[in-house]
Amino acid sequence: LPTLESYKAVVSTQSTGENGRVYFVNHEHRTTQWEDPRVQIKKASNLPLPAGWEERYTADGTKYYVDHNTRSTTFQDPRVSGAGQSSGIQYERSYRWKFGQFRHLCSRASIQTGHIKIAVSRNSVFEDSFNQILNIPPQDLKRRLFISFRGEEGLDYGGLAREWFFLLSHEMLNPMYCLFEYASKNNYSLQINPASYINPHHLTYFKFVGRIIALALFHNKYIDKGFTLPFYKRILDKPLTMLDLKSVDEDFYNSLKWVKENDLEECGLELYFAHEFEVLGEVKIHELKPGGEDILVTEENKEEYVNMMVSWRFTRGVKDQFAAFLEGFNEIVPIQWLQYFDERELELILVGIQDFDVQDWQAHTIYRNYRRNDKQIQWFWQFVNEISDEQRSRLLQFVTGTCRLPIGGFCELMGSNGAQKFCIERVGKENWLPRSHTCFNRLDLPPYRSYEVLKDKLLFAIEETEGFGQE
């Protein structure tokens, strides 16, 4: 516990009464008390923080507290009486602050000793991972992950783990497995497929998916595909509104909007608190409330009807699946750790920035045994500018293990030892194919003699090979 000397200006000093009993004087608040403030602090530290409060640390490691209810900060523990006075630290709830606090929680929960080995085949990465991950205690998954691909040599300094998360998420979220589906014809974000129950083990698979998504968050890795924003809101336990429907089911949204804006009795439209929907060719009827098939929607109760329809639309046929997903998720990352994020910020953490800025890419690239004005480097950037966004994604994945970028773009690319810029190194002979070192974000580019040769070799490397030339 701190000494009384450290509390002189902030909490209290010690005095002795006439009868010899020690009491404490708080010179800041001009109050006295019998109980030692150090004992108060020790007792308070075992209690949870009040709702809306958060514990943070300054750059020099000093603990302080943030009250999100009043948007203020204080050095005094709110669990101790007298807290709440402003500390002078500027209140901030920016994404970077929130992300930093989340990474702090993950770092504190991680187990620094030992590692977990996961060996998979590229052609069965989904099933291999499924069989291993669910048999590992959740706490052990908070150790460092050591990934290996069978039949391939290489040590995992972080690059193989990034590639594993990318490949695994690409497979397990593939709509062909019927676990997830695209939100609509024009929206390729994913949501749970109500028809997933066709697989008798579907709930176990959703628990597995929940674990993997949480592991990606915990280990600061990215996944291949993103979910709908309403799906992220459900993870965060935030209320869903009618407007959330617009991005996933515009026809459904427009029909509810019409109901809200028009007089049903004047239009002669009869609606009931029940709705038909089809799953795998079977038409089912869902009652929004008991006896809903016989309860007519009127001007007086249509607001209730619309709210119930919105809630049902986001949970129809997927309630058990989402519960299983959350079960697996919470085993790795408690939902409370994400309480200050919104749905868009959660998406950023999971999938990173998806659009490429070639100028940013070029500005944050370093060279080894090449100079910026060498013809091979000029040809490389000509190639990057000419290819499609999909091919740029493949190129980035070939070199770094993932096609996703951190929130700060190329300047925040991570390697095995922290921040690691994209690197191009002169290695090999003209007849060699390019090689990559995903742990170090490094491309080995031979000194090709023409742009056509460089283009052909790079296209072959990023489109025709999988695992070849990667370390």
Strand and helix layout:
Blueprint: E1 13-16, E2 22-26, E3 31-33, H1 37-44, E4 53-57, E5 63-67, E6 72-74, H2 95-109, E7 115-120, H3 125-133, E8 144-149, H4 159-172, E9 180-184, E10 187-192, H5 202-218, H6 229-235, H7 242-245, H8 250-261, H9 264-267, E11 274-279, E12 282-287, H10 302-315, H11 319-330, H12 343-351, H13 358-363, E13 365-368, H14 375-386, H15 389-400, E14 414-415, E15 418-419, E16 422-426, E17 435-437, E18 442-445, H16 451-463
Parallel strand pairs: 7-8, 13-16, 16-18
Antiparallel strand pairs: 1-2, 2-3, 4-5, 5-6, 9-10, 11-12, 14-15, 17-18
Helix pairs in contact: 5-11, 6-12, 15-16
Supply the key terms.
single chain, 471 residues, alpha+beta, 4-stranded mixed β-sheet, 3-stranded antiparallel β-sheet, 16 helices, 36% helix, disordered N terminus
